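Entry for the shared binder. Reason: the reviewer on the internal report wants the predicted structure included alongside the sequence.
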Amino acid sequence: MELFEELLRESSLHGHAGSASQRAALKAKLTPSNTVKQVAGDLKVSEGEDLHFDGGLVVEGNLVIEDQGRLLVAGDLVVEGNIIHEGFDYSLLFVGGSLEADNLLFHGEVVVLGGFTLEGVAWTYYNDYSTYADTLSARLVVADDRADAIGTVRADHHLAGHSSEIRPGLSKLLTKGLVDEEGGWSYPALAKKLLKKEALLNG
């Protein structure tokens, strides 16, 4: 898809998706096919890999994106597990339609042009990159020291700010052991728990 080739030449999609009007204009350029790719089990986008689908994508497991990995889906993306990018370098998840998954833990850039719905936790961290979407729905939304550009957040709990500010709320909401006695947490530990499809939230 020519549009994907254009987007992949960019170092960031902020200029294409930073506002609602930009996202609408970008969506208008998309012409997704009617095909839906089914992936049995987990899907991993390896370090430095670019993977794109001109239609929809269903992942019957976890979706793991490594540093410098980029996944672009023109249609809807359904992940029947968790979405995980645990790293400190650029990665990209672009969805031209709607996105559904159990949980998301992401350091890189996320662009969703349709509905963005998670059953549990949407956790993005550090201000190197941002998440761009009109709406985001989840039980818990965490933006750890990160400025996400989301029009409307629908969540039981929405924690945004420096880790020192969100720490008290997280310690009450997460399963025992994820926040230590000093109030800290480990992103590799969170990712490992999600890879095993274990719950992050109490209750």
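Summary line for the report: The first strand starts at residue 36 and ends at 39.
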